From TrEMBL:
Gene3D superfamilies (alphabetical): Jelly Rolls (2.60.120.10)
Domain Cyclic nucleotide-binding: 45-127
Classification via Pfam families: cNMP_binding
Protein name: Cyclic nucleotide-binding domain-containing protein
């Protein structure tokens, strides 16, 4: 792809990411969307490739379907399809997304498809989701004053 199509893809990814509900982050800022969009890595999958299977241990990630179709099933009888422009995996992004989780659904490429993958660690580093929840301000101790300015001591 050329530079023009890369810019179009980046803008499209930013819009898609702004539509995804991230837990603890009601709305993405433009700068967060730009950084996250640049971290998306495209992967090609063949027909009947299992992206992940119900009951297996996986790392959190967000998947954006670029082309093709991915089927979503589970043992409770769920049977849906995610097509171009759709996404899945956002349910894995709640809480501490640096940890692994057990898949609740099976995702299979029903035809040859291209999927953009945004890893949970990348999301966490940009949105600071895990760090905000675990930071204990009561445990911070002041060792020495570094300096003093207009707005107080540092």
């Amino acid at each position: 792809m050329g530079p023009y199509t890369d810019i179009l893809r980046q803008n499209s990814d930013q819009k898609s990411l702004k539509a995804v509900p991230f837990e603890n982050k009601p709305e993405l800022t433009q700068s967060d969307a730009e950084v996250l969009a640049s971290a998306i890595v495209d992967s090609d999958y063949g027909e009947n490739h299992i992206l992940y299977k119900e009951g297996t241990k996986l790392s959190p990630a967000l998947f954006l379907v670029r082309s093709g179709q991915v089927s979503v099933t589970n043992s409770s009888g769920l049977n849906k399809a995610v097509t171009q422009g759709g996404y899945f995996g956002n349910g894995t992004l709640g809480g501490d997304i640096s940890l692994s989780f057990i898949a609740k659904r099976t995702f299979v490429a029903k035809e040859k498809c291209k999927v953009g993958v945004l890893k949970g660690g990348d999301i966490s580093s940009v949105l600071h989701l895990a760090r905000c929840d675990t930071l204990d301000l009561q445990g911070i101790t002041k060792h020495k004053i570094l300096g003093e300015g207009t707005f107080g001591q540092v």
